Amino acid sequence: MKKVRIGAAQGFYGDSIEAAVATAAKGNVQYLCFDALAELTMAILVKDKRKNEQAGFTKDLPMQMKALLPFVKEKGIKLLTNGGGINPLGAQQEILKVAREMGMSGLKVAVVTGDNVLDRIPEFLEKGYSLNHLETGEGIEAVKDRLEFANAYIGAKPIVEALRAGADIVVTGRTTDTAQFLAPLIYEYGWKEDEWDRLASGIFMGHLLECSAQSTGGNFSGNWQDIEGFDRMGYPIAEVSENGDFTISKVEEQGGLVTVDTVKEQMLYEIHDPSSYITPDVIVDLTSVHLENSGLNQVKVTGVRGKPQTDTLKVVMGYENGFAAQVVVGFAWPDALQKAKKVDEIIRTQLERYRWNYEEVRTDYLGYNSLSGPLAFEPEQELNEVYLRMAVKAKTKQEAARFSRLFPPLALNGPPSMSGFTGNSSPRALLGMWSTLIPRDEVENHVKVEVQEV
Amino acid sequence: MAIVKLKDIAQTRSGDKGNMVNIGVFAPNPAIYQIFIEKLSAARVKEHFIGLVEGEVARYELPNILALNFVCKEALEGGGSASLRLDNLGKCFGANMMRLELEVDDSLLAELRK
Q: Per the database record, which ranges form the Acyclic terpene utilisation N-terminal domain (chain A) (predicted)?
C-alpha cells in the first residue's frame, strides 16, 4: 500500500539544519518541509529588504540548499519552504544560483506569490472591507499609515499546483506552515477539495511537525531529564496513509523521544478552540483525535475531523510602534535584591527629575521574577546575586538610546557591589501586529505559480 | 487529601498568538483529569495569572487526550514584538501554570508514584 513520508526540516528562522540532513540521509522521506516564518520573522525580513532590494527572504536559505540539494538530486526528495518571506522571487533566483554553483541541472524551482497585500490596503478599504482588528475590533485608521508589511495566509493549493508542474523545490511567501505539509498529500493522493477529514488530518500532521523537535522531546514539560540526545535532536517524520491516518517517528540514531506524552504537548501548541482550528485549507476539529504508542518512538494518530473552509483569509500586518531599550546590571550578596530594588528607585527618580517621559518603564529581577512576574515565590534563602533589568519604550530611537547612560555612574555613586554590566546594546524597533480578515477570492485571484529550471 | 502543585501531576505547554497565550494542561490519567474538570476552572486560572493576564480566560476540554486548553486574552502586554516583557512569547506560561495548587486524594498520588 502506498505511503507518503514527510520530514520536518525547520521549526523557525534560525533553526539548525543538522536534523534535516539526518532525515534526508536516513529517514526514507519523499518530502522535507520547512516552517520558516513566524509573525516576527516578516518584520525582520522587511528591514533586510529595505537595506538591500535583493534581500527579504530568510538568509539561511542558501545554506539549507547547499546541504540538501544533493539529496534532491540523488533521492528525488522535494523541498517545500515558505522561506521566501517578503521576497519569494528573490529566493527562487537565489536557489537557482546555488544549484548552478553546485553544477546541478534539470532541477525545477517553483515560486508562489500573491500573499503580499501591502500595496492593496487602500484598494481593500475602498471596496468597503473594514480591516478591523480581529482580537480587539478596533478600526485600522490609527495604524494604516505606519504599516511595514501585510501578508495574507495562503493555503496548500498553489504549492500543489507547483508540484503538479514538476517542481523539485517550492518556495513561497506567507503560505501557512501547515500548508507545506498538506500539499504533498493532496498531490500524491489526489484528495478532493471537500474531503474535509483527510485535509484536516494533513493539516494536523503539519501542525505536529512544523515546530521541529517540539513533538520529539524538545521543550517537553514531563520528565525532560529522561530525554536523550538533546545535542542532536531528531525532527519528526510522518508516514501518512491515503485515508489521512499517520504515524509520527524520527530517525532512530538522532536524539529525542516520540511518545503520546511528547506528541500531545505539541497537539495544543498555539491552538485556541480545539474543535475549530481555522486554517485557509480546512477547519480542523481535534476533539476526537486518538494518539497511540504504536512502537518504540512511534505514535499513531487517527480520528482527525474537518469542517468546510471559511470564505475569508487572515491577513497579518505589522506597524511601527516605537523603540525599546534595556539595561542589565548585577548585584552581589549580601542584600542583592534590596540593592537592585534601590537602583530601580534611583533610576525612576532620575527619570522624573530629567523629565524623560517614557511610554513605559519596566523592571525585572533576573534570578528572581523576570519570567514569572507576580507569580514568583519569595526566595527561601537570600539570593546569591540578582540582576536588575530595566526596559523602556520610547517614541524615537534617540530617546530610547539615552536610557542606558544613567547606569554606569551608579557603579561608583550607588549601592555597593554593582557589577556584570553587559554594555549598551542598541535600541530595537517595536512592532505592533494587526490581524484581520478579508474575502478569500480577493487574495486567491492574485496568487501566481511560476517555475524555472536550472 | 494533600495539596500539590500542578508540577507534580500535570504536563503543560504554552504558546502565543498576537496578544493571546494558550496553555495546554495534560492529565496523566482519567481520575486526575476529572479533578481538573472540577477544580481547574477558567476563573481559577484567571485568578492564578493576575498581573500577567489582563483579559478573559476561556477553557476548552479534550477528554480524548485528557487535556484542558486555556486561552488567555491580553496576556502579553501588546504581543511578542511590542512587549517589553522578557517572556514576550509566553513560553513560560506553562511553567507558571505548574505553580497552581490543587487538593488531590492521597490514593491518587500514591498511584502516580508507582
A: 4-448
Q: Which domain holds residue B49?
A: 2-113
- Taking the Cβ of residue B47 and every Cβ of chain A, the question of whether any pair is shorter than 8 Å is answered with no
End-to-end CA gap in chain B: 18
- Are A432 and B78 a contacting pair at CB < 8 A? yes
* Across A364-378, average pLDDT: 96
Maximum CA extent, chain B: 47
Please report the sign of the dihedral spanned by the C-alpha atoms of residue A197, residue A200, residue A202, residue A208: negative
Terminal Cα distance for chain A, rounded: 34
Q: Do residues A422 and A362 touch, judged by C-beta distance below 8 A?
A: no
Entry pTM: 0.96
Strands (E), A3-107: 4-10, 31-34, 78-81
Interface TM-score (ipTM) > 0.90? yes
Residue with cell 517595536: A430
Rg of chain A in Å (alpha carbons): 25
Number of domains, chain B: 1
Strand A169-172 versus strand A108-113 pairing type:
parallel
Residue A279: what are its φ and ψ, rounded to 5°?
-130, 165
- Indicate whether A177 and A252 sit together in one domain: yes
Contact B86 A389 (CB under 8 A): yes
In 3-state terms, what secondary structure has residue A371? coil
Same domain? A205 vs A248: yes
The whole domain housing A344 covers: 320-433
Note the pLDDT of residue A135: 87
Instruction: Say whether A221 and B96 touch across the interface (CB within 8 A).
Output: no
Å from B38 to nearest chain A CA?
19
Burial class (CB in 10 A: 0-12, 13-18, 19+), A322: buried
Is residue A182 located within the same domain as residue A36? yes
Answer yes or no: is A256 within a domain.
yes
Print burial letters for A359-383: b (CB count within 10 Å at least 16), e (below 16): eebbbbbbbbbbbbbebeeeeeeeb
What pLDDT is recorded for position B81? 85
With cut-offs at 50, 70 and 90, classify the pLDDT of residue A272: very high
Q: In this predicted structure, what is the pLDDT of residue A38?
A: 86
Number of cross-chain residue pairs from A and B with Cβ atoms under 8 Å apart: 130
Residue A228 lies inside a defined structural domain of this protein: yes
